[in-house]
Amino acid sequence: xxxxSLLNNIFKxxxxxxxxxxxxxxxxQHKVLMNLVKxxxxxxxxxxxxxxxxxxxxEFVSNVGVQDYESLKGYIDRMRHGESDVLWKGTCRWxxxxxxxxxxxxxxxxxxxxxxxxxxxxxxRDSVSLYLRLNPNSRIFSxxxxxxxxxHAPNYNLPNSLVGDLSAILIENIMPLVNLIRVxxxxxxxxxxxxxxxxxxxxTACNKNVTNIAxxxxxxxxxxxxxxxxxxxxSVEELWPNLEVFFHGGVAFTPYREQYHxxxxxxxxxxxxTYNASEGFFGIQNDFADPSMLLMIDYEVFYEFIPFEELDSxxxxxxxxxxxxxxxNYAMLISTSCGLWRYMLGDxxxxxxxDPYKFVITGRTxxxxxxxxxxxxxxxxxxxxxxxxxxxxxxxxxxxxxxxxMGADARCRHQWVIEFSQMPDxxxxxxxxxxxxxxxxxxxxxxxxxxxxxxQSLEVIVARNNLFNDWLKSKGKLGGQHKVPRLSNxxxxxxxxxxxxx
Length: 502
Hints:
16 helices, four-stranded mixed beta sheet
């Protein structure tokens, strides 16, 4: 009996509890909400919003308005200065520096001890539980895990208080026993210079028996390619013959899938998507054939959803999980044991099924293009790119897009900067297929493209090699969980990239 078989029985018990998601959704989520409210009832926030007299969801909604980072920023800054019992009980020592955007102003998301234990680490364990159910013949524990992480730094010089990437916080606080089965060591894993870290990880891990890898697809790919370069090998399984799964998240996997198939040619390789953000761990893929993720509803996270089309209204109305509709685009609100209350996460999702609730991430509330009423979201872009790549043999490593507003020639269009790891057989045909696909996927885009009256055909600018990495590096955001904004109504990002591409 192998090591994984011995541990599998423990994970099976948890998987059976997850099965209850399909039949007890409302009861589970109501219990989560009441538990959160009770634990925070003696905090400053809890006293202000009368938490001791909240006994049902409707009372919670009546007492607490929708929040965003700006509305909680003052509370969070006081927590960073060491105040206790502000948004959550006790003192918070860890703050995840959000890298979901490339704005100069960073967000600092509190990561409490309860949040670490009952949200983030629970999500990590459940990822393994669901994977073992999908692959009962796994030998994942017979070797080591390669886990990519970011870095951290002191928080206002307070003793034992740090800010950094969520991944660095997780590595810093992980159970000591886990360090026995992971690579690289903590000193390398937490290096701040990504290029130095990438080289040391590649040289350290290349001769280890790695059975599973975890991280953001773009940065993991950089590590794997560097490892092949320094060893002269042609594929990853030549170095790691027992590699069997990649737990990935942070960015959409679609643009990277074919490239991973070329790097890792083993037919036994599996890919499992997770939704682990700075603010919490929310979803895990539980079917290799279905890209949607299972919403994890018994962590210390209570979910609400605002219909995407209502976001601009003065008082958008949120609905609880049990009232969402399949196929509708929603912005997600969360209340968590990290002290975030009815917090607008910034991500948009679409549910693909109920009983249990499964979803796909469709984009960001601020990362979309709606310059001319086209309402183009990241999910549309990913689908369009996938089709254009499939039909032209292209592979996309990074991209961003923004509108070109009406100029002297009265022409409006979308402009895309795309870095190809494999050029299409015809850039003109790639552009045409992408444009046509977006019209087929998005009726608003199709209407605006009708006879070129509002929008002309999109434009693709080919990016030089490593343009996006160079741009992130210029922002001090190379590596970790940092990523490029895919779509924007503003031309700030794309203008900087075009300038650097000259």
